[in-house]
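Render this sequence as a predicted structure.
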Amino acid sequence: DYITNTLSLRGLVNIKELSEKLNVSEMTIRRDLEILAKENIAQIIHGGAVLKKNISSENEQDSYLISKAESQMTREKMRICQMAASLIEPNDIIIIDNGTTTEHLPKYMPTNIPLTIICFALNIFYGLYKNSNYKIIMTGGYFHHNTLMFESAEGVEFIKKVRANKAFITAAGVDDKLGVTCATTYEVNTKKAAIENSDTKILLTDSTKFGKIRISYFADLKDFDIIITDSNIPDEYRKYIKNLGIKLFLV
């Protein structure tokens, strides 16, 4: 049908565009996409779906699936991004990390101010590309289906050559002793480059990530200037962050 053919040709579809094209409700499109997801044809992302390839889960690196993570702590992630978006100022140069938290950031970002945005994930780009006030730079590279991230050595080198006002970074684990970690090894160099080449480093993570350790270390908590999380963060981490002198926003 039209949706399947569009997925095959473009690799991704937008719910609103399909609704207008087919003259049906967005709810109908969502139901159709859910059927394709159950048939292992599509992978649901915010606002649409992407063509699903054979996603392996044979090792730790591939065990993370963005479609699974998207369904967890959604309300908290949205509130976190709403707060994060309020920090964005006209003419900012910002880096937006990949992840299911930052996926919500574009919907809350100011739409009527000029911004330069560096990103490297399909779901992030998809939330940004329609706004003509945004100058968007995609770093490109190999596409990882389990995280929707584009990753390459060239992309990392590009980030190292630019300077950003703010970097919005996500994490899969935050531990007071072993640092801030992510679920896949290929994310590390990009995250490190984003942190090292930004003036203000902002960690966006929900409270369930505190006390967790994932396979790939990329930063210490003290590397961040601001942390935005929900109010269920454990008390010991509130105190630890305060002692580090990091600004903590609870939503």
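Summary. Residues 54-62 have pLDDT under 50 and may be disordered. The CA atoms of residues 14 and 190 lie 27 Å apart.
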